[in-house]
Amino acid sequence: MSMVGGGGQKGRLAIIAGRGFLPLYVAEAARRAQDDPYIIALSNEADADFSGFSTQIAGIGDARLIEQIVRREGIGRVVMSGGVHKRPDWGSIHPTLRVVFRLPSIVRTLINGGDDAVLRMVIGIFEGMGCRVCGVHEIAPDLLAQTGLLHGPALTDQDRIDIKAGVDAASALGRLDIGQGAVCVGGRIIALEGAEGTDSMLSRVADLRRSGRISQRKKGVLVKLCKPQQDLRADLPTIGPSTIAALSAAGLAGVAVEAGRSLIVERAAAGELAEQHGLFIAGVDLGLDGLGLP
């Protein structure tokens, strides 16, 4: 297979795989593009089946092992995908000389930084090895959400009100480097995404609905956006069939994601599930009046 990827970038592609199926979708997309991706599956995080791909399990802080892989496999490009639920602890960090020189900044990041700071640290380590770190959207552009109504019924006036309120809340949340999602019901923000992730937040919403803390008559929406300061090479907002199932369980009307800066995995299955449950999937453009909504 070719060692030249999109844009003429040379070097084998490595996929740093965290939780979920996204790393597998990226690997399959890379293979369709005539790449031969090498999977670095993060220990205690990666949970997809990478049978058929060259794979090595490594800790996120094991720079020595990762650099050995980079040199041995001729890695020139790196893409990070999937969730990482746990920061590296000191016992898991095995630095190379390059990393030793960066230890003061790494220490500050692990103690004080938010999730984006940790991702920037990882990007810096790979760049220090001479790799180009690219985004999932460069390897699998077909996963990006477009602007407008993508699946499901037409938006109601209340849906548009909830989406705009959710956009404001998710933007504020992102500036604090806490999360990417917000749920709005009847114009009121009732849940913000924290470290637990989107599906767990929606499970909380479902509990609130069952307990009567949320109106049974008003549906509401989930909004997911990039953090304003987010590096697009890591952790783009992502939805898929599990998100749609969780929306339905929470009694919501649908989801709005940021167009061009969010991913929809298993799009056909997610769209079919949305249609079955009468839910909408919409892509919003923060630079447009009305967010580009129909």
UniProtKB/TrEMBL annotation:
Q: Which Gene3D superfamilies match?
A: 3.40.140.80, 3.40.50.20
- Organism's domain of life? Bacteria
The record's annotation in Pfam families points to: LpxI_C, LpxI_N
LpxI N-terminal domain boundaries = 12-143
Entry coiled-coil feature ranges: none
InterPro entries xref list = LpxI (IPR053174), LpxI_C (IPR010415), LpxI_C_sf (IPR043167), LpxI_N (IPR041255)
Occurrences of domain LpxI C-terminal (ranges): 147-281
Q: What is this protein's record name?
A: LpxI family protein
Q: Which organism is it from?
A: Rhizobium rhizoryzae
